Amino acid sequence: MFEMQGDVFRLRATSMEGLQYMELIPKEKQPVTGTEGAYYRRRQLMHQLPIYDQDPSRCRGLLENEVKVMEEFVKQYKNDALGVGEVALPGQGGLPKEEGKQQEKPEGMETTAPTTNGSIGDPSKEYFCEFCKGAAPADSPVVYSDRAGYNKQWHPTCFVCVKCSEPLVDLIYFWKDGAPWCGRHYCESLRPRCSGCDEIIFSEDYQRVEDLAWHRKHFVCEGCEQQLSGRAYIVTKGQLLCPTCSKSKRS
């Protein structure tokens, strides 16, 4: 469904519907080389799909038993949740692609358009977006998710993470509880993420404060870096501080 090229994912295939899809994305988010849209896409890739959520070798300091737990975690989400949205006209999701619909991408386009299907849906039938419930015109591309079933479709700008409401970069989604999630928030919904190193925690021994979590070794003051396990600490706006550093920041 998707492939790794360098440090980013690239979707395969392009078509007329894929190009129409690109035009429906806000101009400032269109991934054209050298534009803010291209930088936005790269930032979203790194944020929504951290490499250390996918590859144990890119994590820092995993113990041997934790590597095995992470490998099983990744294997399971690939089998159970991971998918790439499909662009097609309403009513055409899941149909075989028509031959001869391939088309070169416009000059400067950083990413190819998502996998698409080519013929027009039943013009007598009404289609509606799963997210906003608005009408989906029969001649305008929508996004399908095979894990959701092809009776559901989304406007291109409505295919967003249910947790953060951000557009799903390159249409890469994780299906859970009847909705698409970005990779970051899907992983966080299953296991805690360390506020110190940003990696998923695979140890059962970690520090939690309200809705935040840390590896034990990362539970340190962000000001002076002293270990805070068993000591007084203050969490302010997600920042972990010892009382001395907290006081100096207020003064």
UniProtKB/TrEMBL annotation:
SMART domains per the UniProt record, alphabetical: LIM (SM00132)
Ranges of compositional bias, category Basic and acidic residues: 96-108
Superkingdom of origin organism: Eukaryota
Segments crossing the lipid bilayer: none
Gene: LMCD1
Alphabetized CDD domains for the sequence: LIM1_Testin_like, PET_testin
GO molecular function, one term: transcription corepressor activity
Region (Disordered) location: 88-121
GO annotations of cellular component type: cytoplasm; nucleus
Pfam families: LIM, PET
Subcellular location: Cytoplasm
UniProt keyword Cytoplasm, yes or no: yes
Listed name of the protein: LIM and cysteine rich domains 1
Gene3D superfamilies the record matches: Cysteine Rich Protein
Primary localization: cytoplasm
Keywords for the protein's UniProt record, in alphabetical order: Cytoplasm, LIM domain, Metal-binding, Repeat, Zinc
GO biological process, one term: positive regulation of calcineurin-NFAT signaling cascade
LIM zinc-binding domain mapped to chain residues: 127-191, 192-251
PROSITE patterns: LIM_DOMAIN_1, LIM_DOMAIN_2, PET
